[in-house]
Amino acid sequence: KVLSNSTVLGAHLTIIVRMCVALADVKFAMSLYPDYFSFKAREALASLLAYMKEAISLKNSEVLWSESRKVYVTIGFKESLKYKFKPVLIPLPHPIPNKEVCLILRDKRRQTLDRIKACKLPKMPTLITVVDLRTTYKTFDARRSLCGKYDAFLCDNKIYSRMYRLLGKKFEVYKKFPVPVDFTKKNLAKQFDRVFRSSYFYFREGPCSTMCVGTSDMKSEDILSNVVHFADFLPRMFKDGLTSVQIIALKSQDSPALPIYKAGISDLCDRDDL
Fold it and tell me: Taxonomically, which superkingdom (predicted)?
């Protein structure tokens, strides 16, 4: 039976894509097959969720339980990033559900509390102050307990620069460092809505950075949509687009990283020193 021209072309394209994958030239494969990234992300996500389901059943620590349920995108860069203290908020098509949220304020002034109540948030966050951090949560064990008690932390933008000294490194390690909210804006409800509908990308020193794109409680298709949306948004954050990106992978807090994109041979051929 003679194959049609379109069938032959499709068969050849499939062979080329498979050859590119075998050569780790995923970037070139993606240019031939635009849905290749989604395919790899779906494949990696299915494996990761299966791993997390098995791992969660073995966890006893409340902190590890909470963190092991989050799905992260890890970005590996060819060179170290320049450190930026504040995160970049990236809106997601499917917001990450945070059941328990803690809001850190400079103080509990009546005016501030009234503004927060006027926002009519779906669930009122727990409010603590800088004084509470210096007294009630002064010890390492108290801060660790605080970190495990809430899914996310917010803080007044005016005290954001003091958070690292007051909370310590654990909040950064467990990806729970507070996200700043600008209380100087008139429409405070819009500020909260923007924060709750976004995930946060931190520019930390070193060649890697991570961002949460979902939890194991979400539908896999929703997590996949967030991953693809982030990949589309990523080139806008850098002047050279994806040129500086070496690898994109999915992982949980304690799982191996599952690659879904890797710079390949086409990148090496562009280098002047080869």
Answer: Eukaryota
